[in-house]
Amino acid sequence: MDHWNAIETHPASPIKALFDTNPDRVERLSFEQSGIYFDFSKTHMDSDLLEKFTDLARARDLAGKIEALTTGAIINTSEGRAAEHTAERGIGDETSVHHARLLRSRMQALVHAIDAGALGEIEYIIHLGIGGSALGPELLLEALKLGDEKYETAVISNIDGCALEPVLERFDADKTLIVIASKSFTTAETFLNASSVLGWMREQGVTDPFGKVVALTANPEKALEWGIDESRILPFAETVGGRYSLWSSIGFIAALTLGIEVFDDLLAGAAEMDRHFQSAPLHENIPVIAAFCDQYYSQARGCETRAVFAYDERLRLLPVYLQQLEMESNGKSVTSEGKPLGRHSSPIIWGGVGTDAQHAVFQLLHQGTHLVPTEFLAVKEPGHSLSEEHHRGLLLNCFAQAAALMAGQTSDDGNRNYPGDKPSVTILLDDLDGRKLGALIAFYEHRTFVNAMLLGINPFDQFGVELGKETANALLAGGGTMMDPSTEILKSRAFTA
Q1: Which residue is catalytic, options 121, 359, 388, 389?
Q2: pLDDT exceeding 90 applies to what percent of the chain?
Q3: How confident is the model at residue 148 (pLDDT cuts 50, 70, 90)?
Q4: What pLDDT sits at residue 478?
Q5: Is 390 a catalytic residue?
Q6: Least confident residue range of 177-181, 292-296, 342-346, 466-470
Q7: Which domains does the chain show, CATH number per domain?
Q8: 471-479, long-range: CB < 8 A, 24+ apart
Q9: Does the active-site annotation cover 469?
Q10: Angstrom distances, CA of residue 365 to CA of 89, 307, 359, 377, 418
Q11: Which residue is catalytic, options 466, 469, 488, 491?
């Protein structure tokens, strides 16, 4: 049976009509897990389409692949290893889970030592990383900060000096801790920034800058070679991918700044979503249903993008985090067997923050020619102490946009006609704490995995990232490497007076 053909030729009813013919639609397409409410009812998903996707998932042995992921089997086939980010939160191969707990105890001991003044007086922390070594930690700090943290932090990823220099001007070198996060401990951008920070510390009179460096890496031998004391090297497993690594020692800055208890809550919330993902039947499995929606709009409706809008300033970095998680994982053109994929892979993820985005990009969503599945995230409890009207207005704007996208509004004046029938998903958190954020991020990880399994691709390699690195390294090395005429002229114009 051609499962994809059954999905792509499924007759689509307008979303409003689906509500009219199914009084229990909201109940059947809404789910609650770990203090998060997921509402898929404003999509074109119906019971027949859900059944067709379930048939596809069974044909792809999705249940078997979920078991393989969450038990430490080799699921990253191109690199011949497991993908064990769930082991960091207690779900996986018993040996790997035990090892992760030992490493977390080591991280906890270093946090307590720094808090107790073992590295001297610390007021500032500079976290240096890029990609998964920076996006996850920065998201945690931004989403969970309370405003009374013990340390002032800066996460630096870009090699543009405009990112680093203002931090160095603001921080006191004598009271600064450097955290270098790199899975391989060879990342060029990270170590250019690290060299500049160490140079700044020496210029400011710090006699032993390396005494205030912590390394987070899956290659501890390289960190030792670089000159970092073993007591300040926090390893993590090679089987934990970079964009899935915030649960490991890569999350050290969050544990140090926000507290070990908050970090433990983060892991606990993710584990709750892991267990749901493992045990819930496919038609009630939240990451699975989200992926079904993703694939419907990508394959059957030709949608090339998905928009994510966080109606909470604390989650403003979530769309950026998801860009790496989803597009680096599933931005592939071949299957895991190396054969042409023959269909769309990851959508382009974009988005912003409500209510700002309403006055910028929502014109296109309501009246543009592109069909854009949209995701709204909101939090019931505000993260501030201002008037209740701030949060009430924020939430009602969020709900109104989703309702308006679906309902539309007809008018004889074409300029004021809104076609409606635009799909959206709303995710509502009870409040924003470590547990809910952990569950939310784990939901997105598993959703990404399901999308990959339905397509038959490997979401755990990222060879496409390497090509740009290799080309940049060739240019940086010089040696007479000639590029295309356009690139040679750009080089000439940029580096000549």
Answers
A1: 359
A2: 91
A3: confident
A4: 75
A5: no
A6: 466-470
A7: 3-80+266-455 (3.40.50.10490), 86-265 (3.40.50.10490), 465-494 (no CATH)
A8: 472/188, 473/188, 476/188
A9: yes
A10: 38, 9, 11, 16, 10
A11: 469
- pLDDT tens for each residue of 100-115: 999 999 999 999 999 9
Catalytic one of 88, 326, 328, 445: 328
Terminal Cα-to-Cα distance of the chain (whole angstroms): 65
> Is 52 one of the catalytic residues?
no
Q: Write b or e for each residue in 96-122: b if 16 or more Cβ atoms lie within 10 A of its Cβ, otherwise e.
A: bbebbeebbeebeebbeebeeeeeeeb
